[in-house]
Amino acid sequence: MIRIRRAAILLLVAIALSGLFAGKLAPYPYDRQDRQAIDAPPDSKFVMGTDDVGRDRFSRLLWATGVSALLAPAAALCSIAIALMVSSLTALGRPALNYSIDGFTTICLSLPWIFLFIILRSELPLGTGAAAVIATTFGLMGVAGWPVPARVFTASIAEIRQSGWLMQARAAGISAPRIAIRYAWPHLRSLAMAQFYILIPAYVLAEASLGLLGLGVPDPIPSWGNLLVDLQHPDIVRANPWVLAPLGLLIIVMICLEILAPQKEVAL
Amino acid sequence: MTTKLSVFCALTLLLAACRPAAQNIVPKQLRFAIPGDPPTFDPLVVNESNAGAIRDLTSGYLLRIDRVTDEPQPDLAESWQVKDGGRAIAFHLLKDLKFSDGSPLTADQVAQTLRRLATDAATTVGDAFREAHPEVSVSSPLDLEVHFRTSVPRLERLFDQFAIAPAKPAKLPGTAGPFFIAEFQPGAFVLLARNPNYWKRPLPRLDSIRIDIQSSHEIELTRFLRGEFQVIDRLEPDFFERIVRNQPGAARDLGASLDSEFLWFNQSDAKTLPDFKRAWFRSATFRHAISAAIHREDIISVVYKGHAHAAAGPISSANHAWFNTALQPLATDPQAALKSLEAEGFALRDKVLRDGTGHPVEFTLITNAGNTARETMLKLIKADLAKIGIDVKTVALDGRSLGTRIGRTLDYEAALQGFSNTDPDPVNEMNVWLSSKDMHFWRPNQPVPDTGWEKRIDELEDKQATEPSREARRKALDEFQQIVRDQEPVIYLVNPDYLVAISPLVKGMQPGVAPPQLWRSVEQISF
User: Is the pLDDT of residue B227 over 90?
Assistant: First the structure.
């Protein structure tokens, strides 16, 4: 198991480094167009072929890794942090507060976020720079994605509050912060990690969908999300299976994170 | 055991009954798809393509304009005569005309349709007719006259647009064309059946036409390749290439269409636009330079897979009647573009073009999100202009946001759009070219034209709309096209080809790029 974990760490480090040093590793700039090689198949010049305007898929994948491997986990982390903060308030055991949090979570769950995203994009100044658009998109995903994990955490916290060991800890006079950090958090941690892993691919795909609405990472900057947009054209996938490479990379990252997940060490 | 067998048989029969009828092949039935439900079956209020297809297949007209000869041909009217120098027209109808429901089609019914067009602002094709203040009089069951307050140039052409509709409103109205609407299942299909009272009996050759509602072009293509559909109208280039690979005989490129793709700069007085950018956008030299730096041939090969033609101006080269043949597509020459900009005070330093006051030349170019062709064009244009030091920020917006910015708030810098022309006659684009109109999108609603060339275009547009002589019209339109080319308020890029797929089993179809593209001789279609 240790070997597998080491391999997973190495793989993740390699992927992260390839993204971070895309500028050095990529054979071409991510926006260089070769209009004589539109949708070209893989060859010695373009190892993964080219896209619809003749850009090297391999170079774009490296650059995209730098964008998505950093931003999607960051947005997922943001959602989990907000969800933990909101749901931990229910641990105070105040019914009125619990009802308020429950109601607020329900409202946020029922909001049509996609339309709010569209409205927001239409209100953004057209000249907004690419970095600001990317930050806004992932920031919003991070903020908008908290209600579902919050519901899971709230249910878990309610369960913990009813557990025998908590009663014993209280009876033994252990302070509330110590109970929360030393005893309750390990129970929530595995849950938080599971939610974190669920959100990462969800955000990568959400970014791809938002790209169709003019949000997301703007062209020509590549991301796993906007590279995956090509999957909507089955003929392109059939002609060049390397189009699936971003999806493969996403799956590899998810498996590695799953192997490294701490839940196997937590004794519930 | 017997009970189980009975239940099994019953379920099998039930499943067989529930099997979509779309799977069945009906002899002498043409099948194709439209992307959505037609919002109306009233031919006089049609304003989108789904209802337009139904109208083209079911309607009868007093006369039709032959798109090859550009001359009027008889339809429900056996003959007609233009009188009083274009202030009146008299029609003599064919004998024994009937609508598909059996009700008589006489001069009274035609007069009712024309009176409705004259008074009902909801009708979508009657603007020019209504503005001429027509008065309709019926002298016999086969004869009627329409009088106008002023002379109407090319008067008979007006009547090519008006489908004659029965006076009595109905959910599925009777028709005077080759087919009538026999059944409509919203979200599923429209079934057209042969009109038993069609005046060209024994035509039409087909028994029925089934039009499936199919929003997915991918599914539409799959069903065409399986033989379930026999026709696809207006194919995307990618889909066209797939048909070429799978059924080479079915793919037909009809050549350049009347449509055009273009970009323009916001030259309005909008406060959201900085003065220094307004000065760039109002400079013909700047617009020419942008135009010359864009590789149209790359747009054709990359975006349209070779199925487009470089545009030379506001009228497509496919419009043989009115295109100014002296105009050639603009040559791509980024170096010449840069030189002309430098002559205007711009300077390229460190790969960044700056104007005379030091502002880096950059602008946002907006288009429709989800329009793959335009989004790809944005990528190419951005790269092309980067080569002369111009930074283009490309933004794809949803349709409503785009419409609001272009049509209402004017909060944008440049836009990439296209026109789908429904009529070859340039008179229909007057609302774009007259400087006083709100559709004059680069600088709308001018009380008086601000530039000499816009004033001249206003004069030429008025002239071509009112001039009865075809030669005089052509001269005015030639000059208009030359001015647009010289000033380039709109930078025309390409005229996409009209791409269709027609099964080799279908006979008698005469597709063309002018409306109604596939359905001009629908009564002659057979298998």
Answer: yes
Across the interface, do B375 and A33 touch by the CB < 8 Å criterion?
Answer: no
Residue among A213, A218, A235 minimizing CB distance to B398 = A213
List the domain range (segments joined by +) for residue B281.
260-497
What angle is formed at CA B46 by the lines to CA B204 and CA B105, rounded to 5 degrees? 50
pTM of the model: 0.81
pLDDT value for B3: 52
Distance in Å, alpha carbon of B370 to nearest chain A alpha carbon:
6
pLDDT of residue A56: 97
Binary contact (B376, A53; C-beta < 8 A): yes
Q: What is the DSSP letter of A47?
A: T
Beta bridge partners of B414: B265, B365
CATH number of the domain encompassing residue B149: 3.90.76.10
User: What is d(CA B374, CA B380) in angstroms, rounded to the nearest whole number?
Assistant: 10
Q: Which residue, B449, B413, B393, B409, is CA-closest to B278?
A: B413
The closest CB to that of B364, out of A35, A126, A234, belongs to A126
Pair B305, B411 in one domain:
yes
Residue B1's pLDDT is 46
List, in order, residues 6 or more apart from B158 with CB less than 8 Å away.
Answer: B128, B129, B152
The answer to whether residue A127 neighbours chain B at the CB level (below 8 Å) is yes
Q: B46 — phi, psi (to 5°)?
A: -65, 130
CA distance B110 to B490: 41
B300 occurs within a structural domain: yes
Q: What is the ipTM of this complex?
A: 0.74
**Residue B352 distance to chain A (closest CA, Å):** 17
Cα A55 to Cα A41: distance, rounded to the nearest angstrom: 12
Residues B464 and B512 in one domain: no
Alpha-carbon distance of B103 to B20, in angstroms, equals: 34
* B234 alpha-carbon distance from chain centroid: 11
pLDDT over threshold 90, residue B126: no
Dist. CA B52–CA B190, nearest whole Å: 13
SS (H, E, C) B162-218: CECCCCCCCCCCCCCCCEEEEEEECCCEEEEEECCCCCCCCCCCCCEEEEEECCCHH
**pLDDT of B18 strictly over 50:** no
pLDDT(B112) > 90: yes
Enumerate the residues of chain A whose CB falls inside 8 A of the CB of residue B370: 212-213
Checking if the pLDDT of B97 tops 90, the result is yes
* Dihedral over Cα of B497, B500, B501, B506: its sign: negative
pLDDT winner (highest mean) among A106-120, A166-180, B406-420: B406-420
The closest alpha carbon to B122, from B220, B202, B40, B66, belongs to: B40
Task: Pick the closest to residue A52 from B443, B342, B372 (CA basis).
Answer: B372
Q: Where are the beta strands (DSSP E) in B278-358?
A: 308-310, 347-349, 352-354
How many domains does chain B contain in total? Answer: 3
Answer with the residue of higher pLDDT: A130 or B4.
Answer: A130
Note the pLDDT tens digit of each residue in B288-339.
999 999 999 999 999 999 999 999 999 999 998 899 999 998 889 999 999 9
At which of B126, B160, B194 does a domain end?
B160
What is the distance between the alpha carbons of residues B165 and A160, in angstroms, rounded to a whole number? Answer: 74
